């Protein structure tokens, strides 16, 4: 089979919003404790930050990291995580049935974010708390000095304000599992008043209102409409969350889940714009897709459901430490393509989560850290997606799926940097059987050489389930894509079945 992709220099949808390469650190399982932070680990620095994990994070290249939850934040008192460590309280975290020691908190996260060179995206608790705690936290974090909360920050060792620009107004409050679950009207009013009070402390902040926890929620659509009807003037973004998994061995439908993501985004864009039109607003609210990934959620009785987890109370239990296969990595690549294709409206996105908990990086307590298969598409797209997001025309062979009907086997996204002239093409073959020959029809773009061409696919001796494990940490990685040819301005390449690739041309 063969496919054709047209890329015209003049057809693009705007600049790559670099914040779409975000990630997420929640106080959940072993993401913080024994993930990014493990005092006493041979690789930890004097602050307890694991340097082996940190260097993998830097290599992967997230631009912004959401913190501290997630479901966790809906029962969290941020004050518990500041001040002398020995005075911090141990608390029960109901969301994950875990003992929270609070030895890691806001100051530690801000320091870690500096070390990782990422922007902080801070979530506030609108489950059990509200306006007062929200505005106090903004004053603590962002006000220079001379007031109760800002001086407390200084007394706790941070003279300069943290200057956190991005704030989430709670987490998944449409979900019955959420501590402090609310109706859309209850949440909309609380978010509106919290936003107002927070912006009175620091008008420069950007705010994210909570959207639906997933597209299948019974309130999806009406939730966004009602929440935005209350908050449109106060907020800058509405959130989206989506997790995908393979059901009953139906790999074809799973590999096509970017179709679902595309449609989900289009639906939220339509809802935002309907509220904008009816309210005669001129400002533009956009999307923060602040949780997305592959997540193998087990049955409702399982221990890792959001509302029912570890049976005993302990600190940092192993929770949802999914191991990702070649198939999962191809899906992650296509989900990133979808986010990139919608970069005119999706301005922030966070892969959930960063370490150990449904994460591209795994780290053993006292042991090594390594890259999952899904690390690779994220790392390359974050590194190479620069400049304009190109509008592609893709003519592809089809694969038939039970969930979406016939879909394109070839899924792609591309960017072009006007300054360097570099074109980056990210491309997947979702077909499980056939290799595909691809011809690029470049218009107004002169490509004379291949700067990079790499492929992720089933390794020698492996199958589509092969993963990177403690025992085989590098079973799946990127290998050279040798098939790229440039002949008289025409670029051709060959993608094996079930593969993801990056091609950078200059
Ligand atoms: O990322 C894991 C969990 O998924 C988050 O805590 C929650 O927001 C979502 O349900």
Automatic annotation (TrEMBL):
Gene3D superfamilies in the cross-refs: Glycosidases, Golgi alpha-mannosidase II
Enzyme Commission (EC) number: 3.2.1.55
Hydrolase listed as a keyword: yes
Pfam families: Alpha-L-AF_C, ASD1_dom
Top-rank EC class of the record's enzyme: hydrolase
Keywords linked to the UniProt accession: Carbohydrate metabolism, Glycosidase, Hydrolase
Statement: the UniProt record of this protein carries the keyword Hydrolase: yes
Residues annotated as domain Alpha-L-arabinofuranosidase C-terminal: 290-499
GO MF assignments: alpha-L-arabinofuranosidase activity
Record GO biological process: L-arabinose metabolic process; polysaccharide catabolic process
Residues annotated as transmembrane: none
Catalysis: reaction(s): Hydrolysis of terminal non-reducing alpha-L-arabinofuranoside residues in alpha-L-arabinosides
Coiled-coil zones: none
Family recorded in the similarity comment: Belongs to the glycosyl hydrolase 51 family.
Oligomer and partners: Homohexamer; trimer of dimers.
Protein name: non-reducing end alpha-L-arabinofuranosidase
Species assigned in the record: Nesterenkonia salmonea
The organism's taxonomic lineage, starting at the top: Bacteria, Bacillati, Actinomycetota, Actinomycetes, Micrococcales
């Amino acid at each position: 089979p063969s496919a054709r992709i047209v890329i015209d220099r003049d057809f693009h949808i705007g600049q790559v919003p670099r914040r779409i390469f975000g990630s997420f650190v929640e106080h959940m399982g072993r993401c913080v404790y024994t993930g990014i932070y493990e005092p006493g680990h041979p690789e930890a620095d004097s602050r307890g930050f694991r340097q082996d994990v940190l260097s993998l994070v830097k290599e992967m290249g997230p631009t912004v990291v959401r913190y501290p939850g997630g479901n966790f934040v809906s029962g969290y008192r941020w004050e518990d995580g500041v001040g002398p460590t020995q005075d911090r309280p141990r608390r029960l975290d109901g969301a994950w049935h875990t003992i929270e020691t609070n030895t890691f908190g806001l100051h530690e996260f801000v320091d870690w974010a500096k070390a990782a060179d990422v922007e902080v995206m801070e979530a506030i608790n609108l489950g059990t708390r509200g306006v007062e705690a929200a505005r106090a936290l903004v004053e603590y974090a962002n006000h220079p000095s001379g007031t109760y909360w800002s001086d407390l920050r200084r007394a706790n060792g941070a003279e300069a304000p943290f200057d956190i620009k991005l704030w989430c107004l709670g987490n998944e409050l449409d979900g019955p599992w959420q501590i402090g679950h609310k109706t859309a009207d209850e949440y909309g009013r609380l978010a509106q008043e919290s936003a107002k009070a927070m912006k009175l402390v620091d008008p420069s902040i950007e705010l994210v209102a909570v959207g639906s926890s997933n597209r299948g929620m019974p309130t999806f659509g009406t939730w966004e409409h009602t929440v935005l009807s209350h908050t449109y003037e106060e907020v800058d973004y509405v959130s989206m969350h989506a997790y995908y998994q393979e059901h009953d061995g139906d790999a074809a439908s799973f590999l096509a889940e970017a179709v679902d993501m595309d449609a989900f985004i289009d639906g939220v864009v339509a809802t935002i714009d309907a509220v904008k039109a009816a309210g005669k607003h001129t400002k533009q609210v956009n999307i923060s897709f602040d949780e997305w990934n592959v997540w193998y959620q087990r049955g409702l009785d399982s221990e890792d459901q959001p509302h029912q987890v570890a049976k005993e109370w302990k600190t940092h239990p192993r929770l949802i430490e999914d191991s990702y296969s070649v198939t999962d990595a191809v899906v992650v690549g296509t989900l990133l393509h979808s986010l990139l294709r919608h970069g005119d409206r999706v301005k922030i996105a966070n892969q959930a989560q960063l370490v150990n908990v449904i994460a591209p990086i795994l780290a053993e307590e006292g042991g090594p850290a390594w890259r999952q298969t899904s690390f690779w598409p994220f790392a390359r797209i974050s590194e190479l997606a620069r400049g304009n997001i190109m509008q592609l025309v893709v003519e592809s062979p089809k694969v038939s799926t039970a969930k979406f009907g016939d879909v394109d086997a070839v899924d792609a996204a591309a960017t072009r940097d006007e300054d360097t002239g570099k074109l980056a093409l990210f491309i997947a073959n979702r077909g499980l059987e056939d290799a595909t020959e691809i011809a690029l029809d470049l218009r107004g773009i002169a490509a004379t050489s291949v700067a990079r061409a790499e492929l992720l696919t089933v390794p020698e001796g492996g199958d589509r389930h092969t993963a990177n494990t403690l025992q085989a940490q590098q079973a799946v990685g990127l290998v050279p894509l040798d098939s790229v040819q440039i002949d008289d301005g025409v670029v051709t390449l060959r993608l094996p079945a079930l593969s993801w690739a990056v091609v950078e041309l200059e």
